[in-house]
Specification:
With 215 residues, this protein is an all-alpha fold. The chain is built from seven helices and no strands. The radius of gyration is 18 Å and the shape is globular.
Length: 215
């Protein structure tokens, strides 16, 4: 019994650390954006929530919060459904990979912004990936539990393009219609959406392989 209790306490500790990191990083990023804003506050807040990085880190922070405090009622109940942990691991891993491969080279943050950047794009993605590996269950590795999460990046892209058409603000260069046109954005979306499917497939294979090795 003590072993089970210790494992439960360890998991709760990991989740508590995750929620603290997540909410600190997201809140600090909002404060930094407001301090360095080039537009009015309402527009700046809308732009803040236009970043896939911010939205995905908020989802991860909400997940850790829901788990740590066992918030099983709606709307938090979605985080307890099979496949959610694998979907979130996929999206936060995508955040990290896109930043490292495409975005890291285009700017050089310093001070608190550097700390927040590394939390949002490196530390939290790796932290959640390790958490997923430790605590995901066999039902989290079934494709049928994951497909409805594909609506998340799809709806995100549609809303970003629609809003960008009117506001002329695009959060990332690879969705900037003004610079690369609709065809270029569509091509980038296909690549990113394909990457999501590939990452899900890889995580599912890893998860199923892990399950088979556990007696």
């Amino acid at each position: 019994m003590s072993g089970i209790h210790n494992k439960a306490e360890m998991r709760k500790t990991i989740e508590s650390v995750g929620l603290v990191m997540g909410w600190f990083a997201v809140t600090a990023q909002l404060v930094l954006m407001l301090q360095n804003r080039v537009t009015d506050i309402p527009e700046n807040i809308v732009r803040f929530f236009s970043f896939f990085t911010v939205l995905t880190n908020i989802l991860v922070a909400l997940y850790f919060t829901s788990m740590a405090f066992q918030l099983k009622k709606k709307p938090f109940s979605v985080f307890f459904k099979s496949g959610t942990i694998t979907a979130l691991a996929t999206f936060i891993l995508l955040v990290g990979l896109v930043y490292q491969i495409i975005l890291r080279s285009i700017w050089e943050p310093s001070g608190l912004q550097l700390v927040v950047d590394e939390l949002l794009h490196t530390i939290i993605p790796l932290y959640f990936l390790i958490y997923w590996f430790l605590y995901a269950k066999p039902l989290d590795f079934k494709f049928k539990s994951l497909w409805y999460w594909m609506l998340y990046p799809l709806i995100y892209f549609i809303l970003i393009i629609i809003r960008g058409h009117f506001s002329k603000f695009y959060p990332y260069p690879f969705v900037n219609v003004t610079e690369i046109g609709y065809v270029g954005v569509a091509q980038n979306f296909i690549v990113i959406f394909g990457s999501v499917i590939l990452l899900i497939a890889i995580l599912v294979l890893i998860g199923k392989g892990k399950t088979k090795t556990i007696p």
